[in-house]
Design brief:
Length: 237
């Protein structure tokens, strides 16, 4: 089971922090942001499970990253994602917990403390995630594990599910409908295709092709979804 996270960090620790979190395979990075505006937009768009929020000790202007980001998010969301604050200043821990965040880690991050923090999250959130989707077709219900789905293909008002077994299941609903039900590790790369990144083994930016399932499947991606491709590359690389 994987959980999505977004890292907000304009400090010199950004790359190091990202590499440390990547050591934990159950957590998938969906974006790295360095400005408050971009951070808010990405959180609203991607809806990550966890947000790592790095607070800088000095805030030179209104666009810098600070606790005010949490206040702005409350304007748009009924419930915030799990927030873990990162800071070089111990005194920031008091304000962090006053604001109801779930965790606080000091820069530079201790790998053991990071592990404890993520394991606490896993323990309390595993039960919230279903691992199957129900696909109805002519009164026939198929209950498919997300891990068995290689990709989805839109066909007018129907959607075809291509499974790793080679089986194809058709559903009489649009791909847009299913897009909202899929876990975060499914990415739309084309108007007609959504892929499970666990099956991606090659991306050719020159040919705009994505290769799945040991290069047996080749799907095009469109420039409209180039940002999605960049996120996939960031995660896999």
């Amino acid at each position: 089971m994987q959980f999505s996270y977004l890292l907000i960090d304009e400090s010199d620790y950004c790359e190091t922090t990202l590499e440390q979190i990547k050591e934990f395979d159950d957590f998938l990075c969906v974006a790295v942001c360095k400005t408050k505006t971009d951070s808010i937009n990405k959180i609203l768009e991607l809806k990550p499970d966890i947000v790592f929020l790095s607070i800088t000790s000095s805030q030179p202007n209104e666009h810098s990253i600070s606790f005010s980001l949490l206040s702005e998010l409350h304007e748009y969301l009924d419930a915030l994602p799990t927030i873990i604050v990162l800071s070089s200043a111990k005194e920031d821990s008091f304000e962090s917990y006053q604001r109801g965040v779930s965790g606080f880690l000091l820069h530079p991050i201790d790998s053991n403390e990071l592990r404890k923090c993520l394991m606490r999250y896993q323990k309390t959130h595993k039960a919230l995630f279903a691992d199957k989707i129900s696909i109805k077709s002519n009164g026939d219900y198929n209950f498919i594990k997300f891990s068995d789905i290689v990709y989805l293909k839109a066909d007018n008002n129907t959607t075809d599910f291509y499974l790793k077994s080679g089986k194809v299941i058709s559903a009489f609903k649009t791909m847009k409908y299913f897009e909202k039900l899929l876990p975060f590790y499914f990415f739309r790369i084309h108007n007609s295709h959504i892929i499970n990144i666990d099956f991606v083994n090659r991306i050719n930016l020159g040919k705009n092709n994505c290769y799945l399932d040991n290069n047996e499947i080749i799907l095009p991606f469109s420039r409209t979804y180039k940002e999605q491709i960049d996120t996939i590359i960031l995660r896999i690389s």
